[in-house]
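task queued by scheduler; priority normal; single chain, no ligands, no partner chains; default sampling; output format set to structure tokens
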Amino acid sequence: MRPNSAQTERSFFSTSRPSCKGRFGTPRAPCTDLRAPTKEGSRVSRRDEERDLWSQLATSGAPAPTEEAFAHGYDRGSEAGGTVRYAVFRVGSEWYALPIECIEEISKLFDTTLVPKTAPFVVGIGNVRGRVMPVVDVATRLGLSSHVRGSESRMLIVRHEGESYALVVDEVRQVVALPANAYEEAPETMPMSRQRFVDRLVRDGELLLVVLDLDRFLDPTDFVARSRREGVP
């Protein structure tokens, strides 16, 4: 039975959900980027790349693996000297990251249903194998310039405070393991409208990654259109 609009609104925009803060510092084990060049300078074959668990998720829209599947080398419970594993993704020309324990799966783009009186960054709601969830356009949420989605665009299905959300991004690149204590503050040149969504900045070689603060990025009070929040019919 499909949820009615009142049930949907209570589920998506409720502010009384349990907190899950503190995950950003959890140590995680390292893993290999199969898209990176080998020592000989050649790239791995497509077949080898598709053997990689996260590549399978990004290309096939498969659900998150079972605990047994993580024995392939992505055991969520393993630790390696105070490192954090991040899923790296692109929005426009910028690179972002989220700790992988926040991510349930990676999906191809799917159809959404518009929800009236929601903020512009809310694409609508989508159904992933019977689970209804809000779909968020990350570029719009961050105030980035609009652009056309391409063949590499994906949905990052994240779990935050007991709810699932689908985040529309332009590309999911890899999983990296970085020292838990190696981070930078957001530069003063970054617009304040975007700074509030930044948890930290981390570097993967020369690539600067913006780690999103999901508490603020998915603040349910922002999902409702401004006029409605201000009491305008």
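post-processing summary
- The chain is about 15% helix and 30% strand.
- The domain at 25-229 is CATH 2.40.50.180 (OB fold (Dihydrolipoamide Acetyltransferase, E2P)).
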